[in-house]
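worker-3 :: picked Imidazole glycerol phosphate synthase subunit HisF
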Amino acid sequence: MLTKRIIPCLDIKNGRTVKGVNFVDLRDAGDPVALAKQYADQGADELVFLDITATLEARATTLEMVLHVAEQVNIPFTVGGGISSVEHVDALLKNGADKVSINSSAVKRPELVNELADKFGSQCVVVAIDAKQIDDEWFVHLAGGTIPTDIKLFEWAKEVEDRGAGEILFTSMNHDGTKGGFANEALAKLSELLNIPIIASGGAGQVQHFIDTFEKGKSDAALAASVFHFGEIPIPELKKQLKANHIEVRI
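worker-3 :: tokens ->
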């Protein structure tokens, strides 16, 4: 059985780690380089580093910060935010990133997924999908959740898998920062539909939420931010409790 992964997410704005609720009301959560090292030391399986305003501000993720974070960690490291070209991905990988996460740029030009998978391999390409449930349907949103579209979550997820994405990072905007649990029904449907790993994001508030997303949501990995940044759930304790619930994790 494949082990389930625990992934702290560092949302970066103006060089600092921030965290909000439902994608707004951001507050400072510390220095990203120091946090990255701390999480690697605590036993995180991977890290995700997202420059959350890069797309909105039409600029590229800071290569220098990626380099500093990469120097401090010995675990796989995904970088996202404003990535829209093969050249940019090449530079990020050369600065120490193991994978890249694309979101808005993939929706605007879906061929980018094919290009990145062809050039760097599917294992390098994570497609992040921010979606909001409106009535009974999930719709994709762009630019840090600020731009709604009429694209449906499950159709889009299937398309990017077919184009060569190696992983899906699905964030429920309805659940983000609420600490009420992950969107397990949608996650389970994604897991059933796709043959690539699904990372659950949005809603972690207690250990039980992680157990639930692995058991009910069929997630391959669980990503969280504030519960880790503010010391509410220590990663070693989380993994110990997951193990006690017969969920395979790397200790």
